Amino acid sequence: MESVVVSLSAGQLESQVIEVDVSIDGHRVEEADITRVLHEARASIDPGDRVVIHAFPACFAIDGSYGVKEPVGMFGDRLAVSMHVITAAAGPVRNLESAIQRAHLTVARFVASPYASALATLVDDERELGAAVVDMGAGSTQIAIFAGGALVHVDVIPVGAGHITQDIARGLLTPVDHAERLKTYYGAAMQSPTDDREMIDVPQLGETGPAEDITSQLPRSVLTGVIQPRIEETLELVRDYLEAGGFDGIGARRVVLTGGGAQMPGIRELAQTILGKQVRIGRPRRVVGLADATAGPAFATCTGLLLYDQMAPLELSDERQTEAKEQPKGRLARMGRWFKENF
Fold first, then answer.
1. Are the CB atoms for 214 and 203 separated by under 8 Å?
2. Which of 61, 151, 282, 343 could form a disulfide with 121 if both were Cys (CB 3.0 to 4.6 A apart)?
């Protein structure tokens, strides 16, 4: 193994839509026109001190009519493209790439984590009709919004399941590794009627000696009382970010929860209440034969990285390679292409 495809959730991912149009003088749209408008779009990208992670066409338009997916063969006066550009801060990207290179690997490309999770969990109809993937990771919660079959917005909320672990460690005065274990085995997003009667062992911070002397017993309701407020806060932030990203109205009703934080019992019901939308838990699809241990929401991003080359559309960063492969060979062939593009 020499190169890897790497998920990226650091660097404050940001979305930007760039619209570019060119004149086609009423003739039939051909591949050369698509190449020309994409070249114009590429030239108009100005990330400043940030790094472009993704840049691909969300949709095309003919004479102002948007929503065209395959403009080749259509007629019009102007051809336009809406480019979705995702950027990240340069520092974290370079630090991550440097760490990977120290392991004697090269980075084939970075893929935004919520985009990879969406490739693994969304069905075709959800991408077409509109859906939001909310990936609840350890350090952050990432959002990917799809509409019309394309990724149209990405956001990252700097709150994740790791913050729940820290809350448990502080609230119950227990070591962090034990707090993670308590969250995994006994944690829930909502109180249940039996929580007050069920007792759990909580190792105490800094105590030494026999296990019975350093462990206290608490009702499970105390643990849930620590977890639920943090999840509610996270989901309220998700709701605000979805509205800011344009994911509201009657067509924006589907949310897919994935990531390790989505495995907590009761989180689907709580999310439906706070978000006011239909919510389902997103597990990896399209890859057959996954073991039970790797078929859950926590492995959605990893599965999406495997699917990226097969499912993702051609991006501007890849266009140059494709164009080089399709470039006509020989002098006469190049002259013929020039006449075709200009007359």
1. yes
2. 282
d(CA 24, CA 28): 8
Cβ atoms < 10 Å from Cβ of 250: 6
Which residue's entry shows tokens 């274990």? 181
Do 2 and 108 meet the contact criterion of CB atoms below 8 Å apart? no
Cβ distance 22 to 40 under 8 Å? yes
How far is Cα 206 from Cα 251, in angstroms, rounded to an integer? 53
Look up tokens 């502080």; give the residue.
170
186, containing H or E segment: helix 176-186
Rounded Cα–Cα distance for residues 75 and 209 (Å): 81
Q: Hey, what are 68's tokens?
A: 């065209």
pTM for the whole structure: 0.82
Which of 91, 93, 69, 94 is closest to 81 using CA atoms? 69
Rounded Cα distance between 290 and 295, Å, is 6
pLDDT tens for the 343 residues of the chain, in order? 889 999 998 888 888 888 888 888 888 888 888 888 888 888 888 888 899 998 888 888 888 777 787 888 888 888 888 888 999 999 999 999 999 999 999 998 899 999 999 999 999 899 888 899 999 988 899 999 988 888 888 989 999 999 999 999 999 999 999 999 999 999 999 988 888 889 998 888 876 655 455 678 899 999 999 999 999 999 999 999 888 887 877 567 899 999 998 999 999 999 999 998 999 999 998 788 888 888 889 999 999 999 888 877 667 755 433 343 344 445 555 445 544 554 4
- What is the dihedral angle through the alpha carbons of 13, 271, 311, 38, rounded to the nearest 10 degrees? -40
Name the pairing type of β-strands 50-62 and 78-89: antiparallel
Residue 191: strand pairing partners:
none
